[in-house]
Amino acid sequence: QFLSLYSDAVAKMGAAGQDWVKISERAAAHTGGIRFYAYVNSHVSEPSRSMRRGRFTMKFLDEKADHALAVFRDLFLEVDPRDAARLPARTIAAIAARIADTTGARS
């Protein structure tokens, strides 16, 4: 449910106590790009059953591996989705609706 929102957060938000600008600068300095893709597959034995998946991709030079992996770690484990100005209003509305659906709460 939340993979597409996580994908938005990885692409548009800060991480590990740093804002988006700082994380983007680090990624640009040490990698050829870091991306997260959210997608859905069908189960092999049960085609009607969908399986949500997420995949990170990253490129870097050998000599920049330590720094590149540090940026990846920050995005993977410490993405910060709280900067409402960086997320479109429709994304914030989607987050609220999904939380309401998950918890049974109504706004």
Describe this structure in words.
- With 107 residues, this protein is an alpha+beta fold.
- 47% of the residues lie in helices and 22% in strands.
- The chain is built from four helices and four strands; from the N terminus they run H-E-H-E-E-H-E-H.
- The strands form two sheets. A two-stranded antiparallel ribbon has the order 1-4. Strands 2-3 form a two-stranded antiparallel sheet.
- Strand 2 and strand 3 form a beta hairpin.
- Helix 2 runs antiparallel to helix 3.
- The longest helix has 15 residues.
Summarize the structure.
The chain is built from four helices and four strands; from the N terminus they run αβαββαβα. The protein is of the alpha+beta class and 107 residues long.
Secondary structure topology:
Layout: H1 3-12, E1 14-15, H2 20-30, E2 33-42, E3 50-59, H3 65-78, E4 79-80, H4 89-103
Any descriptors?
two-stranded antiparallel ribbon
**Could you give the order of strands across the largest sheet?**
1-4
Biggest sheet descriptor: 2 strands, antiparallel
| DSSP strand tally | 4
Overall pLDDT confidence = 84
Strand fraction band? 15-25%
Classify the helix fraction into a percent range.
40-55%
